[in-house]
């Protein structure tokens, strides 16, 4: 087993998770602040959406940390480490991309139609939960790869 190669994939698991989280937290926070500047009366809803989104995005960082630790402590081969990393990274990448678009769209929709903020927010939460399941599936597949 090439321990150094396994450690590289473990480091990528946490570093890329952190990079992806940072990017999406910035995008959603910027979108929320721009919306707040356009309609300060809706500050409470933009803050709620932003906090919810940042909490969900943080789960991606947690998945990356879990994967890094599992890769290190599983005695994985380099091939298993790469496969496990890809199994969590690809669905998590897609989930982050689509969740960010859903949240940004919800914020823009609320600006266009402030009276529908509850319906828009509820729909946003439902859509995010559905997309988030893809990342959970990736984590499960990664565990199966590492511990087979």
Structure description:
- There is one protein chain.
- This protein has 148 residues and is mainly α.
- The mean pLDDT is 83.
- It is built from 4 helices and no strands.
- Helix 3 packs antiparallel against helix 4.
- The chain is elongated.
Instruction: Characterize the main sheet.
Output: none
Number of strands: 0
Q: Number of DSSP helices? A: 4
Secondary-structure element order, N to C = HHHH
Please indicate the percent range of residues in DSSP E strands (runs of 2 or more). Answer: under 5%
pLDDT < 50 runs, ≥5 residues: none
Distance between the termini: 16 Å
Helix/strand-derived category reads mainly alpha
Rg, Å, rounded: 18 Å
Mean pLDDT: 83
Q: Portion of residues in helices?
A: over 70%
User: Assembly type of the shown chains?
Assistant: single chain
Overall 3D shape: elongated
Question: Which tags fit this structure?
Answer:
single chain; 148 residues; mainly alpha; 4 helices
Topology record:
Blueprint: H1 3-38, H2 43-73, H3 78-112, H4 117-146
Helix pairs in contact: 1-2, 1-3, 2-3, 2-4, 3-4
Please outline what is shown here.
By secondary structure, this protein is an all-alpha fold.
